[in-house]
Amino acid sequence: MLKNIFHIGAIAILLASCSSSPKEYSACDCYGIMAGKDKTEENFKWCQDKSQNDEAFLAEITKCAVKEMGFDPNDISTANDRPKAPNAGTYTLDASKSKIKWTGRKVAGSHTGNVSIKSGNFIMDEKGLISSGNIVMDMSSITVTDIEDNKSNGDLVGHLMADDFFGVSNHPEASFNITSSELIPSATGVQTNFNVSGDLIIKGISKPATAILVAVQSKNIEGNVSLAGAIKFDRTDYGIKYNSGKFFDALGDKIINDEVTLQITLVAQ
Question: What percentage of the chain carries pLDDT values higher than 90?
């Protein structure tokens, strides 16, 4: 579907230096550790060393990342076939091919779902940086993907849209306004990975936020650019306090984590 568009092989540059561990991990374990799941200094260091010294393992991490984003892991490019950084210019998002996956966690587990992109654009400047942009999310499109029972699924969607959470009737849109970016340094010379700074606006409240994005030029569709990555935010910054351990005592296993992760997959022209 997006053959040779993505290169997230350089994702290992995000692994920081720590002490070593004798235990071995799979590539998908390392992708999860990189994302913060069960992360320790020891396993982080192990994954860093393994990915830096084993190209095949690095390619497998890439596939795990792309699979998590909802794409075919066998239909991507890896470190041996790098697509180039996007050309300078203004790009408009293709809402039909772009998506955002959300993950919320609680003591007893987690929930996942999607939210649609309504519109957006961004500018790549002559220095190869994302200089500005805007991503608008349609909050009325929130879905839940991990609950099969229709009633339970509908109940959760309804609660997420209620004032306890995103108050969709009064705030039908959320957005990420990009103000600047910086290239993430790479020992291998990769020029496609960015820390992207901006303002995340939810329920009419604007807070600074940073996303980690990979932006690459399509090799098979002239003019197309793809971006993939993630942004995390604290829901309580936006007045969403329902079952937050920061504000309520004695919740036990009813506590819902304050941190929400948005996995972003965008296609633009």
Answer: 36
